[in-house]
Amino acid sequence: MKTLHSPRALRPPRGRLQTPVIRAALFVFVLVGALLAAIVFTLNRNAHRTNAQQASTELASGARVAASAFAAVRSDLRAQAGQLATSLDLQRAIVANDRAAIQRIAARHHARIEARGDTTGELLAPPRITSTATIAQGGQVLARVTLALPLGKTLLTLIREATPLPSHASLVLVQGGRVIAGGPIGSTALVKDGRIVFGSTPFEAKSALLGVAGTSVLAIEPVSAVEARGVSYRRRLLIAAVLTLALVAGLATRLGRPLARMFGELTDQAERDSLTGLANRRVLDERLEEELDRSRRYGTHLALILVDIDNFKSVNDRYGHQCGDEVLRAVAPVLSGSLRELDLAGRFGGEEFALVLPGTAAVSARRIAEQIRRALAKVTVVGPAGELVGVTASFGAAEFPANASVASLIEAADRALYQAKRDGKDRVVVDGGAVAPGGREQTVVTPA
Fold first, then answer.
1. Which of 189-203, 276-290, 313-327, 347-361 has the lowest mean pLDDT?
2. Could you read off the pLDDT of 350-394 as tens digits, one per residue?
3. For residue 300, what is the DSSP state?
4. Could you say which of 63, 85, 207, 327 would form a disulfide bridge with 145 (CB–CB 3.0 to 4.6 Å)?
5. Where are the beta strands (DSSP E) in 151-290?
6. Are 420 and 306 in contact (CB under 8 A)?
7. Enclosing H/E stretch for 352
8. Contacts by 385-392 with C-beta closer than 8 Å and gap 24+?
9. Full-prediction pTM beyond 0.85?
10. Residue (of 306, 290, 381, 296) closest to 342 by Cα position
11. Right CATH number for 281-442 from 2.60.120.10, 3.40.50.880, 3.30.70.270, 3.30.70.20?
12. Which of 409, 412, 408, 442 shows the shortest CA–CA distance to 427?
């Protein structure tokens, strides 16, 4: 009888006990593994997309800066031509018709001088840019002085020194679709799948016109270098995934409670505002920190626009909070639908929204805000008694690098927003200047 009541006799066979536990553990492991694989795939795809967008923004900014640097070089060439034309040596030689002196001056400056029907000196070979200055007396042109600068490696080096670019990026001068500096000279810049191809190497590229006979500057970066930026992130992502699977394999039979807790934390940290569907304040703050750090590292602009719905308290008091919520819901798609994919619109708090615009200077932020202001002025919401409730908003904008920290950026945008409120609402104010409805410009004094 002792044998029948012993603990060993009351236990089921070990094989029958372990089989369902193993099945359950395998089920949890496979389920978590599939979920983890989906997460890794999504994060990797989003990281790749963000990386490509960032590269495109940086190259576009670099091309614009290079074009501005070229304009400065061209302006300097005009100044040099004017200085040579006003030099006493040249004017005396022309008045005295001293052809030997004129020839020496032309040779020394690589200039072409036209005086008294004769042309002296030869310009540098094309492709080139030229600038001409005249010498006149009593309304009569005595001579013309022309200087030239080759569109070649030397010019490209000057532009590159003034242009912030990623470490593996470079500049190329293209005229009529053919490379004249910075790449295989004379080769054609082929476009394939939205990318520039030189030989067999594909490049991400952005261009800007230089205003000289079909010449443009291209900021290019090898596609392999762009993709290599994400290698470190993908490596860390895969290591984290493998370590997580190893942990799941060891604790598969006891994952019920940790999984519930994990998903609870993810729910608490939801990235969207429940009323408007825009990014919430936490996401806005994190993104603003990230973009400011990126702009600081690469020397690009970053704009912040604060948007506050006008007379929102009066709407709540007169029509009720449900109507106020409908106003917030109606504003949200206008904001998000007016931005690029790499921009971010979010609810800053209450009736206030924020727009984070990477790679955007104050002048562009003002234009975007004005477009949104006009779009919001067309929005109406149906009130509780069927009446139409109009919507207007005031905008305050600020930019980096004029404001070097997140705190100062928010403070400057908030200061501009309150200036818009004080000036009559339904208008755009940029820290340092403003645009009222109809395009009138005002001055905003920024406190020291």
1. 189-203
2. 999 999 999 999 999 999 999 999 999 999 999 898 899 999 999
3. -
4. 85
5. 170-175, 178-181, 190-192, 195-198, 201-212, 215-222
6. no
7. strand 352-358
8. 387/319, 389/315, 389/319, 389/323, 389/327, 391/309, 391/327, 391/330, 391/331, 392/309, 392/310, 392/311, 392/425, 392/426
9. no
10. 290
11. 3.30.70.270
12. 442
Name the nearest CA neighbour of 329 among 381, 292, 369, 365: 381
Measured between alpha carbons, how far is 126 from 70 in angstroms, rounded to an integer? 17
What pLDDT score was predicted for residue 18? 44
- Which among 261, 271, 172, 272 has a CA at the least distance from the CA of 215? 172
| Residue 360: CB atoms within 10 Å | 27
Specify the 3-state DSSP secondary structure of 335. helix
Residue 149 corresponds to which tokens in the numbers above? 């600068």
Give the Cα separation of 79 and 11 in Å (integer): 100
Q: CA 359 to CA 233: how far, in whole Å?
A: 23
β-bridge mates for residue 352, sequence order: 308, 349
Length reported for the chain: 448
The residues carrying an active-site annotation are 351
Question: Which superfamily, per CATH, for 153-227?
Answer: PAS domain (3.30.450.20)
CA neighbours closer than 13 Å in the CB half-sphere of residue 397: 29
Q: What gap in Å lies between CA 188 and CA 196, rounded to an integer? A: 10
**Structural contact between residues 341 and 52, judged by C-beta atoms closer than 8 angstroms:** no
State the residue for tokens 């929005």: 379
Contact 166, 183 (CB under 8 A): no
CA 34 – CA 307 distance, rounded (Å): 42
Asked whether this chain's domains 153-227 and 281-442 adopt the same fold, the reply is no
DSSP string, 51-111: HHHHHHHHHHHHHHHHHHHHHHHHHHHHHHHHHHHT-HHHHHHHHTT-HHHHHHHHHHHT-
List the chain domain ranges. 153-227, 281-442
